[in-house]
Design brief:
single chain; alpha/beta; Rossmann fold; 5-stranded parallel beta sheet; 6 helices; 20% strand
Length: 141
């Protein structure tokens, strides 16, 4: 089992979204469908002070964090979450930044980058199922 597969074996998740990645909504739905505890932090239209206040009221730490944001620097949120004990973090495909890549290569926590959560969640015939099949056949799963 890969790290990407085992990530989805947690019990409690925090999803940080700004609604820029449609697969994040599907991720939330799939996690709830399989009975996971899911907190959602939607930062759409929030300024830095509002984001900080929203982070401070979360019930942390959680086992797993999924981040899919493009409106603000994800590394700033990751740094806060790691400081609050969240160590297993998934950064949605095409939302990582240079700062996130630097953090992922360091010892800050376990940060996965470069993959869409829906490669590992859900089943059946869908665009994500086709993506999963292609990724497996190319050795990129």
């Amino acid at each position: 089992m890969t790290n990407s597969e085992s990530f989805w074996e947690g019990k409690s998740y925090l999803i940080v979204t700004d609604r820029s990645k449609p697969a994040i909504k599907l991720t939330i739905d799939e996690l709830k469908k399989i009975g996971m505890s899911v907190q959602v932090l939607d930062i759409k239209d929030m300024d830095a002070a509002q984001i900080q206040a929203a982070l401070e009221v979360l019930s942390l730490p959680v086992e797993k964090v999924v981040i899919g944001i493009t409106a603000v620097e994800p590394a700033d949120i990751i740094k806060y979450l790691i400081g609050r004990g969240c160590k297993d973090i998934w950064v949605h495909w095409r939302t990582d930044t240079e700062k996130v890549r630097e953090m992922a290569s360091g010892a800050a926590g376990h940060i996965l980058i470069g993959r869409c959560p829906m490669l590992y969640l859900g089943n059946g015939l869908s665009i994500h199922g086709m993506h999963r099949l292609i990724a497996r056949s190319l050795g990129k799963y």
